[in-house]
């Protein structure tokens, strides 16, 4: 029982997450307390979930892209685009009508899905390497976002818009429900239809997949579109949360955090098997890390360095080889024995 | 020539890998000024022998002497320093560097701590002139043809004071004119007294350029012959082996021969070709017929099979299935027409290593169903269990990752993947390669019983006895061309097929 738990891909990420959360207890006795205030649940944990929502969303999309041996560097810019489109289209709207809200959502999601399709077409039909193809959108998308906002931060005074990222439903932040819904859609599509199997097979061995009659081009196109969709919603949440459109900084470096979350979650950058649940935990690790660094009072300028160190530790902990060495260094015989078992195989 | 001392002599060479004897007691001698062809089918041990000689692998037994002195080669670098140079099949150069950079990479001529370009250009020019090549050495390698690159690779190999030059399939990507150009160079080097080892699958070329032939089979030394004294047919026999485990239990009931003629045609192929892969050919495959594709390695067997499956696009010709003209532009279309193709390259084109046995099995079937008509997990498990038992797959656990299985069991999973799609034409490309005798027999029995149920099978194999035992009709390929079609009736023997495979008589 315990053994199978340790073998599970989720084990180490969860251990790390729990450690980070426990670490906070030293500095803030009330870290785990959650109370009802003004009809909302309030507490640090809720806060992490709420603030981590955009990252969790785009990491879900990123997971599928990475499973096909691809990568999507454009998501940060798509977040900026989505936020800019959403906020600008409701900028002058009156509070009493709810229609502009849906126009905003429709416009953002529609355009960002097109952006994802653009990436997908470049990769699957034109044959551009994913990292190059999505780099184009990474640059262009932010440029478009800046054009839309005119390079300014535009504040939105339209109340319904801020519900997406700042509203509450059944005591909980609304954004958590959005994440849950998108996660459920992703889980359904990949585990209850054949799409998950095809994604894994295309990522693991594209030639063999083609010879098995799988249209890998459409699979690849689909994951980039989905990634664009996730980034669109993430962008709406972010911009709605601060009730403004910021083409310059919204979603900056999010693509890198998302890639990290995916890798921490156990999905290999070499494609193949993917772990959506692991990705969620990975995203939460990164978010709690950020929150912790702020709440512990590390000066802001140390933020990135501390984050890098912790991420390095997480990645090392996940490597079976490193753990073996670590236990080997403490004199355990386990490590020695298992290296002996590795026979040389003829290929 | 025989009285000379050999420049290189390898005696009683043994090389073992865990569980496999790759070379056992192999001899090889090489005289100055000769081109010595090393022949053998896949897995014969040619490349192992070359790797042993060039220090890629260590030797487990036997001696190597170079110009009378025993040597121990521990690394490719050492081999080069001793004067043993190799040019590999794939041009091993950097196309984005200049010719001169490629020739001197790793051993640049230095002057006062800086690279002496003038001297290097001069020496490169000189080297290439030796090969009768007059080209601008400062241009990028990519600006020259593949043949030229191949020769530049030879120049690079000669740059060190080479005594022995090994050419491993140097002609596989060259056209006829380029081959001639290369052969001129080889003859020049031969005159200079260089000892050359030549590995190639093209019989014509072997007979054109080589003086002497050493044949290996299954890691064993079969013999050494003067090329002019060894007829082609004998060479092929020696490469393939003659042990006729004559038609035994699995032999197909020959009583239904007459019926074969009457059976409906499943696929008619006319004039199908792809430049550089296979010349135009015709082929008829009837329902319930097992058609064998025989030919030496590199004769175009796989290339032909891939065209029938839509894995490659043909340049000319057409395919009719049950009398209706079809375009097979992708495997997906071929599968929709009930064709299945089990690739010979299991690793690269067969298994999905990260997935389980079950997932690998249902992949092609799910491919036909598309994204949303997902085969329920329960059904998947049922199918997987059934085929694990039917094909005797070990370990009998469908949730095991396929990459952990042995070659034979992986092959069975591949078979299952295609049988599950219930094809009308099953193309099996070397399904028995690299698997043990027991599994081989099982697979052949299965083929026969499937054909009796009406499935057509195209059986590509280099094992002639297997082809003879199972096939109704055998198409023979040579040098990327279909040369004949033999009906397997009147007690054909391996000899008959070999004659066609060797040709040139």
Automatic annotation (TrEMBL), chain A:
Membrane topology field: Multi-pass membrane protein
Primary residence: membrane
Subcellular location: Cell membrane
Membrane-crossing segments per the record: 10-28, 73-92, 98-118, 130-148, 168-189, 219-238, 250-267, 274-296, 302-319
CDD domains: TM_PBP1_transp_AraH_like
Pfam families associated with the record: BPD_transp_2
Keyword entries, A-Z: Cell membrane, Membrane, Transmembrane, Transmembrane helix
InterPro entries listed in its UniProt record: ABC_transp_permease
Entry protein name: ABC transporter permease
Organism, scientific name: Aquibacillus rhizosphaerae
């Amino acid at each position: 029982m315990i053994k199978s738990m340790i073998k599970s891909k989720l084990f180490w990420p969860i251990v790390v997450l729990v450690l980070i959360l426990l670490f906070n207890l030293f500095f803030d006795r009330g870290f785990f307390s959650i109370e009802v205030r003004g009809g909302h649940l309030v507490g640090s944990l809720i806060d992490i979930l709420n603030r981590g929502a955009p990252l969790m969303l785009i990491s879900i999309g990123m997971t599928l892209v990475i499973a096909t041996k691809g990568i999507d560097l454009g998501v940060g810019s798509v977040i900026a685009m989505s936020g800019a489109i959403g906020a600008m289209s409701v900028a002058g709207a009156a509070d009493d009508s709810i229609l502009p809200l849906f126009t905003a959502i429709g416009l953002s999601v529609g355009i960002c899905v097109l952006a994802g399709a653009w990436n997908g077409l470049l990769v699957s039909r034109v044959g551009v390497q994913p990292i190059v193809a999505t780099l184009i959108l990474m640059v262009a998308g932010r440029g478009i976002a800046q054009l839309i906002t005119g390079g300014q931060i535009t504040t939105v005074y339209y109340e319904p818009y801020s519900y997406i990222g700042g509203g509450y439903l059944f005591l909980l932040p609304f954004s958590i429900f959005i994440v849950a819904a998108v996660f459920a859609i992703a889980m359904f599509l990949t585990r209850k239809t054949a799409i998950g199997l095809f994604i894994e097979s295309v990522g693991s061995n594209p030639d063999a997949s083609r010879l098995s009659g799988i249209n890998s081009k459409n699979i690849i196109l689909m994951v980039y579109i989905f990634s664009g969709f996730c980034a669109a919603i993430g962008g709406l949440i972010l911009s709605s949360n601060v009730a403004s459109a910021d083409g310059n900084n919204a979603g900056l470096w999010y693509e890198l955090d998302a890639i990290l979350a995916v890798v921490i979650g156990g999905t290999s950058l070499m494609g193949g098997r993917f772990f959506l649940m692991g990705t969620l935990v990975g995203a939460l690790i990164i978010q709690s890390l950020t929150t912790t660094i702020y709440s512990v009072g590390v000066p802001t300028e140390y933020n990135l360095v501390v984050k890098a160190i912790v991420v390095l530790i997480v990645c090392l902990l996940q490597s079976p080889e490193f753990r073996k060495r670590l236990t080997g260094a403490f004199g355990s015989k386990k490590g020695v024995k298992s290296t002996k078992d590795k026979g040389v195989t003829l290929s | 020539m025989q009285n000379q001392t050999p420049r290189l002599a390898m005696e009683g060479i043994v090389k073992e890998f865990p569980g496999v004897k790759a070379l056992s007691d192999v001899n090889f001698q090489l005289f100055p000024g000769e081109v010595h062809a090393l022949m053998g089918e896949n897995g014969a041990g040619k490349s192992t022998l070359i790797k042993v000689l060039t220090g890629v692998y260590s030797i487990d037994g036997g001696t190597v002497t170079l110009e009378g002195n025993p040597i121990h080669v521990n690394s490719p670098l050492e081999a080069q320093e001793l004067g043993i140079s190799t040019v590999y099949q794939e041009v091993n150069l950097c196309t984005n560097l200049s010719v001169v950079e490629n020739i001197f990479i790793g051993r640049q001529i230095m002057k006062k701590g800086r690279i002496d370009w003038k001297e290097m250009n001069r020496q490169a020019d000189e080297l290439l002139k030796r090969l009768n090549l007059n080209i601008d050495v400062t241009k990028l390698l990519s600006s020259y043809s593949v043949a030229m690159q191949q020769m530049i690779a030879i120049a690079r190999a000669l740059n060190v004071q080479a005594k022995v030059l090994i050419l491993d399939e140097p002609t596989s990507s060259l056209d006829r004119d380029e081959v001639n150009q290369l052969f001129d160079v080889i003859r020049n080097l031969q005159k200079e007294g260089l000892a050359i080892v030549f590995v190639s699958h093209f019989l014509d070329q072997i007979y054109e350029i080589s003086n002497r032939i050493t044949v290996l089979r299954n890691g064993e030394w079969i013999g050494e012959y003067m090329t002019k004294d060894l007829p082609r047919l004998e060479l092929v026999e020696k490469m393939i082996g003659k042990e006729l485990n004559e038609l035994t239990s699995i032999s197909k009931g020959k009583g239904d021969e007459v019926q074969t003629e009457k059976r409906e045609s499943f696929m008619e192929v006319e004039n199908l070709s792809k430049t550089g892969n296979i010349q135009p050919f015709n082929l008829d495959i009837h329902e319930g017929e097992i058609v064998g594709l025989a030919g030496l390695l590199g004769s175009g067997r796989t290339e032909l099979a891939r065209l029938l499956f839509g894995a490659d696009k043909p340049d000319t010709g057409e395919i009719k299935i049950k009398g209706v003209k079809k375009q097979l532009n992708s495997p997906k279309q071929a599968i929709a027409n009930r064709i299945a193709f089990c690739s010979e390259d299991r690793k690269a084109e067969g298994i999905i290593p990260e997935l389980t046995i079950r997932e690998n099995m249902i992949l092609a079937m799910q491919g036909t169903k598309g994204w949303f008509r997902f085969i329920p997990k329960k059904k998947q498990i049922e199918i997987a269990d059934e085929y694990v038992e039917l094909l005797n797959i070990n370990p009998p656990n469908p949730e095991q990752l396929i990459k952990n299985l042995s070659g034979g069991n992986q092959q069975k999973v591949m078979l299952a993947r295609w049988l599950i799609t219930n094809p009308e034409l099953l193309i099996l490309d070397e399904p028995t390669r690299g698997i043990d005798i027991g599994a081989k027999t099982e697979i052949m029995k299965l083929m026969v019983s499937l054909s009796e149920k009406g499935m057509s099978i195209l059986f590509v194999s280099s094992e002639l006895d297997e082809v003879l035992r199972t096939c109704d009709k055998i198409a023979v390929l040579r040098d990327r061309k279909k040369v004949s079609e033999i009906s397997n009736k009147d007690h054909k023997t391996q000899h008959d097929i070999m004659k066609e495979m060797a040709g040139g008589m």
